[in-house]
Amino acid sequence: MAQEDVFKKLVAHSKEYGFVFQSSEIYDGLGAVYDYGQNGVELKNNIKKYWWDSMVLLHENVVGLDSAIFMHPTVWKASGHVDAFNDPLIDNKDSKKRYRADVLIEDLMAKYDGKMDKEVEKAAKKFGDSFDEKMFRETNPRIQENQKKKEEIHARFVKALNDNDLTELRQIIVDYEVVCPISGTKNWTDVRQFNLMFSTEMGSTADGALKIFLRPETAQGIFVNFLNVQKTGRMKLPFGIAQIGKAFRNEIVARQFIFRMREFEQMEMQFFVPPGEELAWFEKWKAARMKWHKSLGMGDHKYRFHDHDKLAHYANAATDIEYEMPFGFKEVEGIHSRTDFDLTQHQEFSGKKITYFDPERNESYVPYVIETSIGVDRMFLSIMAGAYCEEEVEGKDGKKESRVVMKLPPVLAPVKLAVLPLMKKDGLPDMARAIMDDLKYHFNCQYDEKDSIGKRYRRHDAIGTPFCITIDHDSAADQTVTIRYRDTMKQERVKIADLKHLIGDQVSMTELFKSLK
Questions:
Q1: Mean pLDDT of 462-489
Q2: Same domain, 339 and 250
């Protein structure tokens, strides 16, 4: 199945099973704004808990914060967002659609990657076990030609970004005949910059109102509270401040479902270190964050680092952790060495001294910062994409039938256990309710007695429930139930008294946390 079709099915599945809805859908929706349904909010909250606890519980020198969305407007002047928080945009004159010029070029390079991967796939099928991919990539003429074209584009792209050369960005699009996906034409406007911040007014009258911004990131709330946290917590460098919160960007080219939205949520941790130690800590946090992602078991090969072609003006190192979505490798987390830019800027614009006295060095200085920043919604999408699976399984009378199953990590699954009485009589529902009433204090359970047992299994496969238990006529006599495992569909008889321990071990984050050490 084409990856584009997989993505369309994933979007449809997300709505059908209560994961994600279009915001204000009864009014025809609001572009690039989404609501999380009953299963989506559980999955999202589990992702946030996994991140928060792995940061704050597992690190004695990382503490939490919840800063306000509204901030003094000078914060955004100091941070550079007022003057430099822009995207390079280009319009197609025929379709009247607007695109990010950098994304068009990145997609162009990805097409060359796709061509090379197809050549490798064909050769691998042809030569079987004897196939040497490395040698094939180094010697195949078609791959060499495509690689050369990609490198040419990349070199021009990097130079244009670093020189802030909007004319050259457009020229790359023209030279390589990039077409508009809607009109199919190459009739492009010039590239220009567009500021992404939403603004509003605070105050009772128009004349006396103060122009403020909806925050485009959560990091600045951490920086302006650096001294508050450091002093009240008696924090010693190195230490980190973690935060989860909403951010807002007026994305003109919002697309790919919840990957790029106008209202989104971030999980950020700013780690403050002495000057000169930042690059060593940058490497440590790179390794730690990749380990965190891979520990979920979504496939190590689906993650990769992508170093930035253009460093932000405040950074001396930056990389992204990318996950292979149905539409290619895309960023889910950014790790940046921000130097002392942010604290220095706020010190200058506020007129307040923002320094740390280091008793070991016997000197005061402005700390450097390592940032790890995840988009919750992108993380959510990567988990959904990695979990979505269509399988052919053996049904009634040995006939093959298909099932859609969300192979979510059990610790993140919205519902951990489905409690299913085999029939709606003979006291089975009462016994099922008693079991659920005992277990619901420990993990999220759902009771379901409607339809055949097979249809109930399929419903819970579709939302990713890792365990289903069936209460039958033997349960009252021997105090056992049948437990069914989502991924393998294996069934076995277990004691009711063992359920809490058996399921609890599989859905607890404790073992995952231990693996991160």
A1: 95
A2: yes
